[in-house]
Give the backbone structure.
Amino acid sequence: MAALIEARDLTKKYGAHIALDRANLKVEAGRIVGLIGPNGAGKTSALRAILGLTRYEGHLSVLGREPFRERTALMNECCFIADVAVLPSWLRVDHAIDFVAGVHPRFRRDRATALLAKTQITGNRRMRELSKGMKTQVHLALTMAIDAKLLVLDEPTLGLDILARRAFYDALVNDYMDETRTILITTHQVEEVENLLTDIVFIDKGRIVLDSSLEDVATRFTAVTVTADRLDAARAEKPFYERHILGKVVLYFENADPGKLEGFGEIHTPSVSDLFVAKLSGGAA
Amino acid sequence: MNNSKWLIRREFWENRAIWMIPAVFGALLLLAALFGQVSIPRLTSPRESEEAAAAFLVVVGAMFYLVMGVYSTWYLLDCLYTDRKDRSILFWKSLPISDASIVLCKLLVGMIIIPLVYFAAADATALIGAFILSIRARASIGSSLWNGDVWWQVQVLWTYAILTTAVWYLPVTGWLMLVSAWAKRAVILWAVLPPLLLYFFERVFFGTHLFGHMISRRLTALPMVSFNGSKYVWTHEGGVVDNASGAPVVSVWHLINPSGFFTSAETWIGAAVGIVLIVAAIQLRMRRSEI
């Protein structure tokens, strides 16, 4: 099956600054992909290119289309929430539903109203009168009522409190996700999304440093909490990152032979956030 | 086509001033008609009363036209800027609507729809105002201010004015929209400063006034180009007479000069410049998102 998103040598420059440096990326259908990177790593530039909001160099195909040239057609099958705070302040909730229903062929009005009926929000409210959490609910209801193949979320929970953040992701997983959909999320709050992702993509300084499914992560990466006496022997197996916590040393290995590591100490699969830190700091060391 | 219906409706949701300013302005004029001092000269002949009716309708319309000009300018300058400033452009861009249709709908609203709203408000104000005045003033004036034939002629006049204004000011409209799509802040400054600098630059370095002359002609010459301005003159009594013969002008068809306006090279060169600027605004709209 063809990839939903395919980028080869995707490059984006702002003057002398290179935001994306020959990035390669492939996203298959039915996955929930986390695009994770520190601030300024090129996450937003990558999303802007994928959504057709900006020009770029290199090859990029999203749902078989060329995003910048075919943004209008692309938006029939792809929707995005770029930060939840962007609903215009003067827009009324019922007008927002009317408008999207009017212009979007795949919008299901009954779904949006059903989702909003579960909230405290009434149709005659303007966006400026709503709290940030409520605006999120409106935006999510509008977006989830669209029968889209690809949903792109750019830092979707920025500025939300923990309750609203949790509600956002719960709704996404429980009410929206099924095998016909694909979600691409960028965030730098890794802990928040790591249980719902199926794939992770790490991006740093405009380059993709890791693109892997979570199943592969489990077999490919190993973390070992090494006892002090075995440290030198373990270091000989070439860990890519070392972390010292409370007198213990955790070594991170990529593609290592588990048989060899067993003797060094307690073995576990690194969490996405640990791996993120390991991979990005390790690369710099 | 279906999208444009929603895009235009959207402009009315966002810019309630489109109808609120003419409504308030009309209400103020009516209050003046109700409580202000009314002194209307005694009208003796049908000719005079017809002229009074025409003058009344034209003056009311002209006041609305001036307010409309100020508001439209502001609207065009603001229309591609606000949603970039408050980042809501990211919401609009997440919908399957092309940037070209967004820009063209805003152009349509600024050029035709806003003038139509003001036109309707001017008509309503004139009708109600004439009614109020006819009750307050001497009885004989009542029927004069409501003169069906004159009223129709004024409708023709305004339709013609809207059309010619839209075409003539297309380069100005295009420039305002381009600035609106481009500027990161201070849209008014960006709209005014570059032409001003170009004017001074030309003056200082070439000693000529070509650019300045071009701009001032574009801003002020519409009445001369679209009406038979030099052929007829307004009299002190409010009527219009033939400049040469002194004979009164009886019909709006004498005043307007569509064949002159729509065949003038000046009209279409300006329109072409406007179209180029609007295409540039669309291109910018495709490339720019939030500020």
User: Anything to note?
Assistant: The CA atoms of residues 39 and 188 of chain A lie 7 Å apart. The interface with chain B takes residues 48, 51, 53-55, 68, 71-76, 79-83, 85-92, 95, 98-100, 102-105, 139, 143 of chain A (CB under 8 Å). The two ends of chain A are 38 Å apart (CA to CA). Chain A has two domains: 5-205, 216-284.
